[in-house]
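re: that chain from earlier
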Amino acid sequence: MSAVNTRTQSSDALFTLTRCGILAAMAVILYYIEIPIVAFYKLDLSTLPAILAGFAMGPAQGAAVVIVKNLVHMLGTSTACVGELADIIMSSCFVVPAGLIYRGGKNRKSALLGMTAGTVMMTIAGVLVNYLILIPAYQTLMNLPLEVIVGMGAAVWSYIDNTVKLVVFITGPFNILKGFVLSLVTYLIYKRVSPLLHQRAGR
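^ sequence. v structure.
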């Protein structure tokens, strides 16, 4: 009986690993497809596969997809890995709460509640990460003057004349928009792709 349980556990672990690998590969590809939105912020859907993993398997697997995606992109990073580290933090702040809340109900209501919580957490994390990590890193690692960075925000709204205003009035709304888009796409496709995420080969 123990041998059967061991084989079952090994099979389940392999199945989970395979799904995470496929979703991580999709995330890596989606990371290259960016839509310029405002200032230096671009929208991509590379967090989407991680959300699907979080809903189908759990928040830990969703976070794993986020981490693998960014580890791959670190091989060709243009930000000394700071951008990828920031994405790990912000994307995980969406995926983990969404996965945890959905796990408690596994219905449309819990999915919407989870993604709303994820959007709020990602927005807060985005403001803090940009202010504390990304903007200082761009200044030191990429030799980009603060005046230039803030100027990109001022080009959108002349009221923006310092870093705080930049992250509050540009970074914050951008992440709200990103969370909304990710939530909408997930809501529209998850039930359609869910059978594929749970179906084993040969069954």
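The mean pLDDT is 89.
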